[in-house]
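During the second half of the funding period, the structural biology subgroup turned its attention to how the target accommodates small molecules. The most pressing case was 4'-deoxy-4'-aminopyridoxal-5'-phosphate, which had performed well in the primary screen but for which no bound structure existed. We therefore specified the complex as follows and requested a full 3D prediction, including the ligand pose.
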Amino acid sequence: MRTPEARRVFNFCAGPAAIAESVLEEARADMLSYRGSGMSVMEISHRSALADDLFEEAEANLRRLLGVPKNYRVLFLQGGGSQQFSMVPMNFLRSDESAEYILTGHWGAKAIGQAGLEGTPHVAWSGEEERFVRVPENAELDLLERSAYTYFTSNETIQGVQFDAEPTGLSPLVCDASSDFLSRPVEIDRFGLLYACAQKNAGPSGLTVVIISDEMLDRTKPNLHRMFDYREHAAAGSRLNTPPMFSVYLFLLITRWIEQDMGGLSALAVHNQAKADTLYARLDRQSDFYTTHAKPTSRSIMNVTFRTPSAELDAEFLAAAKRRDLTHLAGHRSVGGMRASIYNAMPVAGVEALCELLDEFRDAHQ
Ligand code: PMP
């Protein structure tokens, strides 16, 4: 029996997000002495043999899970998703060039802002006028004949809209996969570069994973600051400076958990889809009371955005949720309403508890 202080809640936070309890338990067991070293993983040198093993296994696990081809490099970086908004154009967008940006929500807009500091972002499609309720069909993209890359956000965390399949560009695809990374299989060879900050499905904050093709690395601009140059990080095996050891360690535990406990990415995708289907079905069944933000064809399986008939009822819903230990359900201020982030580590029981509240709240308030 847990003490009240040690109780666990169902955490629907968009990130930092829920981490599987077994992973946290394992980290706790390792806390004072990592692999018999007499030191925690936060205390060992990033140049030690233990660190070499850690980085090697983390990369090998990721390569196996995603089937990363040999001609791609895996980089463990810092600076979050936001630093990639800058690094992508700093490395690939020359001042006299354009790059395609497919704008489907909040994070894509941030990326466009940074691209404008290096060259000319060209918005190939924007969902802004429709309030970012969907992603485009490929035929809707207005693509230039020449561009440095085609950038998109596979899952917009705030609006809860997700590409079912990646778009097809005329230049190498660059993807911000921060909020659906490791939630389903992805064909890496369709991308020039794919990145994700870790704090949704892949660990605590502090780590950003970048998967980049050798061909893309060859296109990198000269004379970059070293810490912002993908080639430098690749040459240094992701240890150009002191890496976030604890975040990489948790990433390693999570890749093991995905493979060994969840059965790999294909099985996990089925599991995630089932959770999302359950939640959307419950919302749709009560569409006289709850409205979903995303159009059905673009609905995210990671971030479910919805609202009640009024802002007052939204606030009451959130309070009722909190009383049941269902936390962090408030939507982002730009969208309002609620957002249930149901990443890999959200158990079915959490989704069921939310469904129960949806029913009871509507019955009490309609
Ligand atoms: N991209 C997406 C899709 C995100 O959801 C987020 C953060 N929630 C970011 C980028 C920015 O990540 P960070 O806070 O690590 O800079």
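Two results from this model are relevant to the next phase. The pocket of 4'-deoxy-4'-aminopyridoxal-5'-phosphate is lined by residues 15, 80-82, 107, 153, 157, 176, 178-179, 197 (CB under 6 Å). The mean pLDDT is 97.
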